[in-house]
Design goal:
Layout: H1 3-19, E1 20-24, E2 36-40, H2 47-55, E3 60-65, H3 72-80, E4 84-86, H4 93-104, E5 108-111, H5 129-137, E6 141-147, H6 152-157, E7 162-168, E8 173-174, H7 182-199, E9 219-220
Parallel strand pairs: 1-7, 2-5, 2-6, 3-4, 3-5
Antiparallel strand pairs: 6-7, 8-9
Helix pairs in contact: 1-2, 5-7
Length: about 220
């Protein structure tokens, strides 16, 4: 990271401390060594800087929509934080190669399988890229669920801090011995997302409200 990047990160970290109060299971329990896919729910813009700054000095990189390149500040920030650009409608091979490279460098790869912000925190169906990356690179997955950031703009208008709760799961791997088909990728993705839903209060579970679908068939602890 350049000097400019360090300065921007310092300012962002300071602003987050002013505007947010982080509660719940601490992110300090995230492993400090080795490659890892960190799966998070996508509520709004806040979770990325929160995760990045709270996990420092661990090297974290995320997958960022290519539209962010149109904004000069987000473009600079993405470069400094090592974000991997992606076309959300049609992810290219280069995106998966860059993600694999980051994992080989033993970084944390942060992915939001929903692909787009919910705004409310209510879970939508997850995309299958996370299962593909985990299997291709043989790396563990760690779910970090959070809620509270959906109240950010409401609180700002009332000069209130936003309480953000993080819940950190335990790492697991996907069953690589299974015959991998499109349906299996779907099932693995749904199992990841259902476990995330289980970690959240019931009102946020959305597409994964049915806890009966949780199974250990394709999950290895």
């Amino acid at each position: 990271m350049t000097l400019t990047g360090r300065f921007i990160t310092f300012i962002i970290k300071l602003l987050l401390k002013i505007f947010c109060k982080v509660e719940g299971a601490k992110l300090e329990s995230v492993p400090r060594q080795g490659p890892l896919i960190l799966v998070i729910n996508h509520i709004n813009f806040l979770e990325v800087p929160l995760i990045y700054t709270l996990l420092l000095p661990r090297k974290v990189c995320g997958i960022s929509k290519k539209e962010n390149q149109d904004n000069w500040f987000l473009r600079v920030l993405a470069k400094e934080w090592g974000a991997i650009p992606v076309n959300r409608e049609n992810p290219g091979i280069s995106t998966f190669k860059e993600a694999g490279k980051a994992l080989k460098e033993k970084k944390i790869l942060c992915i939001a399988p929903e692909g787009t912000r919910s705004g409310t925190g209510v879970l939508a169906k997850g995309h299958q890229g996370v299962a593909f990356l985990a299997l291709q690179n043989r790396v563990p997955i760690l779910i970090v669920a959070h809620y509270g950031v959906e109240n950010f703009w409401y609180n700002i208008k009332r000069l209130k801090r936003t309480r953000v709760t993080f819940i950190v799961g335990k790492p697991f791997i996907l069953a690589s011995e299974m015959k991998i088909t499109k349906n299996v990728y779907r099932e693995m993705t749904d199992q990841i997302m259902a476990r995330m839903a289980f970690m959240l209060p019931e009102r946020y579970r959305g597409a994964y409200a049915d806890m009966k679908i949780i199974s250990d068939k394709c999950i290895r602890v």
